Amino acid sequence: MIKDIKVIQAISSISQRAERQRDIDKIISSYVEVGILPQLLNNNNQILFGRRGTGKTHILKYLQNAYKDDINKTVCFIDCRILGSSPQFSDASLSLSHRCSSLFIDILNEICDSLLNHIAYKPNSNSDLALNSLDDFSNSSIGEIQKGKKIIEKSSENRNNQKNSKLGISTNELNYGVETTKSKNSSNEKTLAFDKGEYEKIMFPDLNHHLKKVLEYSDTELILIIDEWSALPLDLQPYLAEFFKKSFVASPEITLKIGALEYRSNFTIPREKHNYIGFELGSDISSNLDIDEYYVYDRNPLEITKVFTEILYKHITSELPENHLETKYDIKTSNQFIQGAFSGKPAFNELVRASEGVIRDFINIFNIAFFDAQRKGQKNIDKKTIIESGRQWFENDKSKNLDEQLHSKIRRIIDEVIGNKRARSFMVSRELERHPIIQKLFDARVIHLVKKGYSDKDNPGIRYSIYSLDYGTYVDLINTSKQPQIDFIKNPELDSSTIVPFDDNRSIRRIILTRDILD
User: Fold this and answer.
1) DSSP-based three-state secondary structure for 482
2) Among 83, 31, 96, which residue's Cα sits nearest to residue 57?
3) Cα dihedral: 428, 430, 432, 435 (round 10)
4) Range of 499's domain?
């Protein structure tokens, strides 16, 4: 099977990112449900957190498709990476209000297009009224256009030369000469000019009124899905959230779903007396959905292995001709495919472990391993190939994205956790969890969150989060005397160096990361 040209083409055709997949049917057929989608299929305003590569876009695309046949739903899917223009990101002379308004109007234009398509393709007896209200809605989103003034000051200088004749008579001699004098005149000129900048003024009461009328006349609800929120400039995010709150959050006919990276998002600016600019998380919008929580390998390795078995099988079969594996190899299930493609369960388990619960890493490590085995003429993918592919993926993808400071910090953490303690997991207090180094390493997928909110009985009153080092940081130590403790110990003989963070009595070493390592 590993030499089958159609299988080779299918694996090379797997999209590394869901937005690169143009065929919505392949997105649907390759989706594996782990319990997230049922929590999104509601009319609550929600934020879906998850690191890059965990499948946020895939889930949101699936959610978009779930509403496609509902004639009373209009879905507007917006990828924030395509919003804005270069001056909004690079021109420091533009005001914050101008940049926010311009980006928000881009979003309103996307909403207008989605509503126009709904009115055109799902007309009713009030479609004319809906179109008129849509036009009013579009105009209210522009409002007044104001032009800034600037004064140009000019100065000029004139020089004059004047010659005078002079005759002098004295008792001794007669003198005659010509005297030249110079004079200088200056003048100032002020010119009032208008610059070319246009500043939009958004009329929120009008916007709300006309949008409500559009939805009423077209007999629809608006599902607004915002993907890649974290691609927006960080300083603009809370103000755009405030615009969203004024425009959409309070309306029962509008449902807002946002996909974002937790540590690259800023939804709120606190103010005096418990006032906020932006979203008040938990009140205005729910923020309790985190994809990372569902793919933690160490929390439930057997279940995560089953899920990743289905993910790999569905991604490959979605790119193959129908029933190709069944017809040619009598493969009808995901487990049969794993048996045929890998040398055994240990090899596939190593692949799942190496991915650390990140689907994009899982697909890429498998891709490297498959073509490495195919190139070497192997019959299937063995554990040694997986280990080498995991090392290669870490070096080519993750390590290169770390700057000098992060390289230095992860080196210190590795020396402390693996070098001194022979472990790969460590604890971080809630206070230190917001430290920029921890956030950057987590976002870069070099450390992984295992469990939040753990309370250690020997340190009452302090809440910890448990992290583990990425597979790539210790892959070179596997099968050597310096290999760290890979699996959590089950039913250990407890001592002062051990903690038990899981309900099934699995334990890890008590290693607490201190501020001096991070600062």
Assistant:
1) coil
2) 31
3) 110
4) 402-518
- 269: tokens are 């600016």
Q: Which amino acid is at 271?
A: R
The rounded mean pLDDT for the chain is 85
pLDDT at 423: 87
In a domain, 17, yes or no: no
Residue 249 CA to residue 245 CA, distance in Å, equals 5
Average pLDDT over residues 210-225: 96
Q: Which of 343, 377, 399 is the last residue of a domain?
A: 399
> DSSP character for 321?
P
Mention every residue, 6+ apart, whose C-beta is less than 8 A from residue 272. Answer: none
What is the distance between the alpha carbons of residues 365 and 388, in angstroms, rounded to a whole number? 9
Judge whether 7 lies within some domain: no
Model pLDDT, residue 174 = 46
> Which contiguous run of DSSP H or E holds residue 78?
strand 73-79
Q: Are residues 225 and 263 in the same domain?
A: yes
Within 275-358, residue ranges assigned H as helices are 301-317, 324-329, 334-341, 345-355
Token pair 């007044």: residue? 144
Is the whole-model pTM more than 0.85? no
> Are both 216 and 114 inside the same structural domain?
yes
CA distance 53 to 357: 10
- Residues making up the chain, counted from first to last: 519
Q: Which two tokens stand for residue 267?
A: 């939804």
Query: Is residue 28 situated within a structural domain?
Result: no
Q: Which of 230, 197, 204, 231 is closest to 95 using CA atoms?
A: 197
Find the DSSP H helices in 320-448: 324-329, 334-341, 345-355, 359-375, 383-393, 404-414, 430-433, 436-443
Domain final residue, candidates 273, 293, 313: 293
DSSP states of 241-298: HHHHIIIIIT-TTEEEEEEE-GGG---EEE-GGG-EEE--BTTTBEEEEEGGGG--TT
What pLDDT is recorded for position 193? 53
370 and 433, same domain (yes or no): no
Identity of residue 216: E
The DSSP code for 147 is E
Residue tagged 């697909």 (tokens): 363
Name the 3-class secondary structure at 164.
strand
Q: Specify whether the CB–CB gap between 475 and 414 falls below 8 A.
A: no
What's the total number of domains in the chain? 4
Q: Are 389 and 373 in contact (CB under 8 A)?
A: no
Residue 374 one-letter amino acid: Q
The domain that contains 332 carries what CATH number? 1.10.8
Residue 255 sits in the same domain as residue 187? no
381 touches 342 (CB < 8 A): yes
* Residue 354, in any domain of the structure: yes
Report the run of H or E that residue 192 belongs to, with start and end. Answer: strand 174-200
